[in-house]
Structure formats: C-alpha cells, structure tokens
C-alpha cells in the first residue's frame, strides 16, 4: 500500500507541475485571444455591470441573484489556499511568485468567463423548478458527449469526499489549536450547521453566502490592510521584491532557501490556479442558477470572482507576509502555512492568531457548504433528485470523519481526482470556445445589451 501511495504522490506532483500548468496557461491565452482581450478592454464596464448593479433588480430568469451566485462560487474558491497557500508559494518560489500569481489570475479570467457563459447557455430546470447547469450539461447538450458529462459528474462527485475530509480536518485543527475544543465535537457541530444550509437548496445557500462571504472577506482583508497601513513605508520595497524577483532568481536569505526563476513561475501559477479554480468547472455550477438576461452578463460576475479571490484576498496575504518580514526568519521554510498567523501575531499579539483562525474557519466552512451543493448536483445529474440528498448525507459524514483525521490514506488521491475533473472540462471549454466567442460578440454588438447600457450611461451623464 505504501508503494502505491508513493506512486500516486509522484504522479500527482508531476501532473500538477508543468503538464497541467502549461495546459491551463495555453487555454487561458487562447481564450483571451479568441475573446479579443475582453478583460483588458472592458474592466470599468464589467465593474459597473456587477458591483455597480448590486442594488438593481436583475433582469431575466433564474433562482438566485447574480451576487448570490458570485458569493456561492466564492465560498468554494476562497478557502485555506488564500491564507496558508500564499506563504507557501513565497517560501518555495520567492516574492516574485506573487507577480506570476497575478498574471495567471488575469489569464484565468478568460477560462472562468467561458465556463460560466456556457453554464448559463446550456442550463435547464430540474424537478424542483431550480435552474441547474455546469460542465456536465454543456458537455452533454453542447458537445453531444453525454459520456464526457457523466465522467465529469462522477469524478467530481467522488473527488469531493476526500476534499471535504481535508477541509473538515483544517477546521478541527484550527479550532483545537486556538480554542482547545476536540476534533470530534468540532466536526459534529460543523456538519449540523452545514446540513441546515445545504438541505435548503441553492436559494438558502445563496442567502447565507450573500451575508457570510462579504463579511469574512472584509474581516480578513480589513485586518490585513491595517498591517499594510502600519507598514506603509514598506510598500515600495514589497513591490520591488515582487517585480524584481519575478524575472530573476533569488538568493537565500534568513529562513528563505532561494529560488530559481522556473520555480518562481511554477509556484506563482500553481497558487493562482489552485486558489481561483479556473478550469475546474465548479464555479459555473453556482453561476448557472443566477437570474440574468444573457449568459455573458453572468460571465462578468465570474470574472469578479477572480478579482476578489486572487487579486484582493491572496494579495492581502502576500503583502502581510512580505511587509512583516516573517518569511526571512530562521526556520520559516519548515512551516510556511504558519507564516500568515505569525505575521498577524507580530502586530496584534494573540488577537492576530485568533483573527487568522476565525478567518480560516469561516473560509473553510463556507467552502464545505458550497462544494456539498456541487457534489449533490452531480449525483442529481447522474441518478436523479433523491441521489443528490443521499450524497449530501455522505458528505456531511465526511466532515466528521475528516475532523478526527480518519481515512487520511484516501487524501493522497485528492490531486489525481482533481485532475480527472479538470482535464475533461478544459477540453470541453476549448471545443465550445467558438460558441463563447459568438455569445460575447452578440452581447457587445447588440442594441439590447452592451450598446443599450452605454447609451443609458451617456444619457445619465
């Protein structure tokens, strides 16, 4: 068994190294060119159509508001990776990794946009009158490849079991360390709270995430901003570190072991992609339920997900870690995941550690809540509504099992199953890219959408 786990570990490490990073970078660049660099050409318009329209009643059909769809999708992407993953990228790739994290976020916008546009276009209503969509639907209806949709749905449904165990373990470990509560108690309480939300369907999930996600993001980023303000004079130095070492190797200093340029790029790309989940096909499942008058309009909300997750929250972590100097301390490379807590603690004392722990708990619990919904939708697609409810129970049990460290052996397969989800989705998005391009051109050249919005803006000014 140990031999098998070693092989699985080596294959996973290789897959999530150059092969998948190259696949996602090429896909992102290809889609960016296909869509005529829309993320660079229309940033202000997209902001106005998303956050600028939060208090307006959304047009079109759907079960939840576009904001609720975004906060549901963000609940999945904003997680432990934002707090403990970023310092790991800095310790193994150097400060320059942050620059490459930003670059892949901007390129990844084209993938996230395409996935969500396709999810809305090919969505349908289930027996409960809810709009459902995502990769399994655009593979089945758009490509006429039900076998690929079935593969994706089954792979994601299974992948989420070890994923939820890992998340459950992260919550229990954080609570045990800070508040000295047993893992089993934490697991049971988490499972009960999550269960109350997920059995209410996407409408209840949307209402909960609409309240929780903005709060948790503001709480964490706000605390990070205080540290940045305290270190205001360090900001030019932080930017200098990020930009200068993005293009040259960095020598070892203090607790940092040094990094070659290839490692800097690899860690930056890997952290950015792992954090915002571009290409994984999960966020489109949430966006498919949104009330919208055109698939492209909801695609803008998907782009904003990357802005919040990677460009704001991950950047806040990076600035705190770099400006505080904890990354250069002796022994820092031995436990990179503890650096964010150490940075906050160096400014706020014990309160700083509590801030990071509470943020981590919020981030992880909200992730569990939404990924259970994703998994249930895969079961529903494969076997019908009742199967979705059965899988919800399986996932809730996985939280408890993970909180006591159970079945750690299957955690080793997590990255492999993630690849089994990502690869078919990226292939489907590439095969359907012409449809995304047509929908994008239709939106920006129609008197019903973009041109009408621009006309209204001119009249208002």
TrEMBL record:
Keywords: Cell membrane, Membrane, Symport, Transmembrane, Transmembrane helix, Transport. InterPro entries: Na/Ala_symport (IPR001463). It is found in: Cell membrane. Gene3D superfamilies: Amino acid/polyamine transporter I. It comes from the Bacteria. Pfam families: Na_Ala_symp. One of its GO terms (molecular function) is amino acid:sodium symporter activity. The chain crosses the membrane at residues 20-38, 99-120, 147-166, 178-199, 211-232, 238-262, 300-327, 347-373, 393-410, 416-433. It is a multi-pass membrane protein. The keyword Transcription regulation does not apply. GO terms for cellular component: plasma membrane. The keyword Electron transport does not apply. Belongs to the alanine or glycine:cation symporter (AGCS) (TC 2.A.25) family. PANTHER family: AGSS FAMILY TRANSPORTER, SODIUM-ALANINE, TRANSCRIPTIONAL REGULATOR, LRP FAMILY. This is Sodium:alanine symporter family protein. It comes from Metabacillus arenae.
């Amino acid at each position: 068994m140990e031999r098998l786990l070693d092989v699985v570990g080596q294959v996973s490490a290789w897959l999530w190294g150059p092969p998948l990073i190259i696949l996602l970078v090429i896909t992102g660049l290809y889609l960016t060119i296909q869509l005529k660099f829309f993320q660079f050409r229309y940033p202000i318009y997209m902001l106005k159509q998303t956050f600028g329209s939060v208090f307006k009643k959304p047009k079109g059909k759907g079960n939840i508001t576009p904001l609720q769809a975004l906060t549901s999708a963000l609940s999945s992407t904003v997680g432990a990776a934002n707090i403990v993953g970023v310092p790991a990228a800095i310790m193994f790739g150097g400060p320059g990794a942050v620059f490459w994290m930003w670059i892949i976020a901007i390129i990844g916008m084209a993938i996230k946009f395409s996935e969500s546009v396709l999810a809305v276009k090919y969505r349908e209503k289930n027996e409960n009158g809810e709009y459902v969509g995502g990769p399994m639907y655009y593979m089945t209806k758009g490509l006429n490849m039900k076998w690929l949709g079935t593969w994706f749905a089954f792979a994601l449904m299974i992948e989420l079991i070890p994923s939820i165990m890992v998340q459950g373990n992260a919550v229990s470990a954080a609570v045990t360390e800070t508040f000295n509560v047993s893992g089993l108690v934490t697991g049971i309480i988490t499972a009960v709270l999550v269960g109350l939300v997920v059995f209410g369907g996407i409408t209840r999930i949307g209402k909960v995430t609409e309240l929780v996600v903005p709060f948790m993001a503001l709480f964490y980023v706000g605390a990070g901003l205080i540290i940045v303000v305290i270190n205001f004079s360090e900001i030019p130095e932080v930017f200098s570190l990020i930009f200068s070492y993005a293009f040259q190797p960095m020598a070892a200093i203090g607790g940092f072991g040094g990094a070659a340029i290839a490692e800097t790029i690899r860690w930056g790309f890997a952290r950015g992609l792992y954090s915002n989940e571009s290409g994984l096909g999960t966020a489109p499942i949430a966006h498919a339920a949104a009330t919208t008058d055109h698939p492209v309009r909801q695609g803008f909300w998907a782009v904003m997900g990357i802005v919040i997750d990677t460009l704001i929250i991950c950047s806040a972590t990076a600035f705190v870690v770099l400006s505080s100097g904890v990354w250069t301390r002796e022994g820092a490379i031995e436990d990179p995941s503890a650096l964010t807590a150490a940075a906050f603690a160096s400014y706020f004392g014990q309160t700083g550690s509590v801030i990071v722990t509470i943020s981590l708990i919020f981030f992880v619990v909200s992730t569990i809540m939404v990924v259970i919904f994703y998994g249930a939708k895969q079961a529903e697609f494969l076997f019908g509504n009742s199967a979705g409810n059965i899988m919800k129970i399986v996932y809730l049990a996985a939280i408890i099992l993970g909180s006591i460290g159970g079945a750690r052996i299957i955690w080793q397969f997590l990255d492999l199953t993630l690849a089994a989800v990502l690869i078919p989705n990226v292939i489907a998005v590439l095969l359907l890219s012409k449809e995304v391009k047509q929908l994008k051109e239709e939106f920006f050249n129609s008197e019903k959408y973009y041109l009408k919005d621009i006309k209204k803006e001119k009249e208002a000014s």
